[in-house]
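Suppose a colleague, Dr. K., hands you the sequence of a protein chain of 347 amino acids and asks what its three-dimensional shape might be. Before reaching for any lab equipment, you can write down a predicted structure in token form. Begin with the sequence itself:
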Amino acid sequence: MKQTLTELMRMSRICRMVLATCLGSFILVIFYFQIMRRNSFVVEGCCRKGSRNALQELYNPTQSEFSGQAALHQGRRDQVADTCRAHSATSRKRRVLTPGDLKHLVVDEEHELIYCYVPKVACTNWKRVMMVLTGHGKYSDPMEIPSNEAHVPSNLKTLNQYSIAEINHRLKNYLKFLFVREPFERLVSAYRNKFTLKYNSSFHKRFGTRIVRRYRKNATQDALVNGADVKFKEFAEYLADPATQRDGPLNEHWQTVYQLCHPCHIHYDLVGKYETLEEDANYVLQLAGVGDALRFPSYAKSTRTTDAMTAQFFSNISTHQQIELYQLYKLDFLMFNYSIPSYLRLD
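The predicted structure, expressed as tokens, is then:
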């Protein structure tokens, strides 16, 4: 009798353990599906990777609507290559790139993309998009990411953080792209943003005081201390001054694209343009297989620096300064097929 009772108690414990195990498994299954439903963007949209990567889709499109885009970007690649060959003495002064040369190349491992960001060419929105692509579901809407957070270096991984073998593998197998803009529009946009807005006091202190000290006669003490009222003419003089070149590389906001992204050393598969920003950007996202879930943010056209605005700024500087600035940005004009602006006085 005692043995039978013991056996029954043992069987009861086993039944309770089995029941608890089944119940726990059931709860885990429910929890799993709740998580997946909540993060459906990750599963169904942003981070799903197909059998073909973006590089393969660019060069061998499976969708007929991509064929026209592929031809357009082939022409842009040819333009860059032709310019590099024609101006090899200038464009290939250095044969080997250093890790510092790769700090503008943002890497997306999941979708096998490399993006070279160029300030004043929608780079804030592109960084937001890259944070969505690489965030593993942490972000879903690029415009919910504050602009200052998009520029925090630790939020994105850049190519200079890899070993040489890893760098070479990614340069060979990932789709590499950049976005460019008419060089003088980009330059005036940088000037307006960094020297005419009060909140950019760090640029006023770092560059404005230096520019005022060098190029303004009878500058006031306030201008020498704060550098908050730099004129475009003074900024142009600063850029064209050989002493500026000797100081070191230009700041990234007005550095040339060919010095930031090194298109004569790195073969970019796709060159997008600011003038066709949304079309080109969404083409990249389609190639990466995320175009149905993620769209490139629209930008505020009301505050954009236009050609007419740029012409007005250039009308206030001398012919000599215009020629010097064109020489500084000449390779960007040629590489990316921008015509010489009609307002320039080059003869």
